[in-house]
Design a protein that fits this description.
The protein is of the alpha+beta class and 339 residues long. It folds into three domains: 1-91, Orthogonal Bundle (Rna Polymerase Sigma Factor, Chain: A); 134-196 and 299-325, Orthogonal Bundle (Arc Repressor Mutant, subunit A); 198-296, Bifunctional nuclease domain, CATH 3.10.690. 57% of the residues lie in helices and 9% in strands. It has 13 helices and four strands. The chain has helices spanning 5-13, 17-39, 42-58, 69-89, 115-133, 137-148, 153-160, 164-193, 204-214, 224-234, 271-281, 289-295, 302-316, and strands at residues 237-248, 251-260, 263-269, 285-287. A hairpin with a 2-residue loop joins strand 2 (251-260) and strand 3 (263-269). The radius of gyration is 23 Å and the shape is elongated. The N and C termini lie far apart (57 Å).
Length: 339
């Protein structure tokens, strides 16, 4: 009968290096897959796996629960991979900023957002992170690994040593809590500014992409909208502005204004796609006056509006309330229009 992780940890702490070698071999395959999933490079993944094992060996005495050695080791690897990814993004060649060509008339000031925009982004970031901090610990872990680190639900299940169904349930409950707490928080903030809110239901996947952009986080691999913006840049196509332009039979429609070779063209789009592109292309976002007049609500009405809409969606069995798909795997896409 094979020794348990706890037994091998105890032997390793007593000076049996062969026992630690057995621990490494037992978890090496998952460790490598996890590192390669985050870094996308087999050679780098091998380096990170070895470094994670070294960190684990040197810190083994600080492991509180020897039975959870595997999850502990994977957590070390995730942190090391995150550091490597941050190091990758710390410097950029100027040529990369304009599709491989030297940016014409570039000044460093243009790379920075306006002070007002930067302040609003930091405020929103703080609001979201504070809301996450109020979640139960097991829900915090799932939210951070999925939204901030870009891990799939399957990978989170391996790290948390929990079945996939349990991970999905935790994420679903976390989203419900965040929806309620953020609705109340943002409603108060908008009320203080004397502003109105336009609630629009969008798909879970598109919502994920918006949230990642709003909190200035990126997934380990380029996402669809990031690729679209990069291709537009290479083709010298500029997204000038977007707007939620009309409402027809309770379905919202959006319009993009794009400039191609000096001419501006209008392109129809779903609001979720238009908003995701606008945020990444740093294009202004507008709402048609007639749409605001028909659908905007007071900030203090937002929690009740979301609760009522959610109940109606659940009664109809629509996809909006379903657990999120894995970001790293093909997601089921609904053919229904957005509301």
């Amino acid at each position: 009968m094979d020794a348990s992780d706890a037994d091998l940890v105890k032997r390793a702490l007593a000076g049996d290096r062969a026992a630690f070698g057995l621990l490494v071999e037992r978890h090496r395959s998952i460790l490598l897959r996890l590192a390669q999933r985050m870094l996308g490079d087999p050679a780098e993944a091998e380096d990170m796996a070895q470094e994670a094992c070294l960190h684990a060996f040197l810190s083994l005495s600080r492991l509180r629960d020897p039975e959870r050695f595997g999850a502990w080791l994977y957590g070390i690897a995730v942190n090391l991979c995150r550091l490597r990814l941050r190091a990758r993004r710390s410097t950029y060649a100027l040529e990369d900023w304009e599709g491989g060509r030297v940016a014409r008339g570039f000044t460093w000031a243009e790379a920075q957002p306006a002070p007002e925009a930067a302040y609003e982004i930091r405020e929103l970031h703080a609001v979201v992170l504070n809301a996450i901090a109020l979640l139960p610990p097991e829900q915090q872990v799932v939210v951070r690994l999925h939204y901030l680190d870009g891990l799939t639900l399957t990978e989170i299940g391996v790290l948390a040593e929990a079945p996939l169904g349990t991970v999905k349930a935790r994420l679903h409950r976390a989203r419900e809590r965040l929806r309620a707490s953020l609705a109340a928080e943002l409603a108060q903030e908008f009320a203080e500014r004397g502003e109105h809110i336009l609630p629009i239901w969008i798909g879970p996947h598109e919502g994920d992409m918006l949230k990642l952009q709003l909190v200035e986080k990126s997934a380990p691999r380029p996402l669809t909208y990031d690729l679209m913006v990069r291709l537009l840049d290479l083709a010298h196509v500029t997204v000038e502005r977007v707007a939620v332009s009309r409402l027809h039979e309770e379905v919202f429609y959006a319009t993009l204004w794009v400039r191609v070779e000096g001419k501006t063209h209008e392109v129809d789009a779903r609001p979720s796609d238009a908003l995701n592109l606008a945020l990444r292309a740093k294009a202004p976002i507008f709402v048609a006056a007639e749409v605001m007049d028909a659908q905007a609500i007071q900030p203090n009405e937002l929690p009740a509006k979301l609760k009522g809409d959610q109940s109606g969606i659940e009664d109809k069995g629509e996809w909006v309330s379903a657990p999120l798909p894995d970001m790293g795997l093909p997601a089921h896409r609904s053919t229904k229009p957005e509301k």
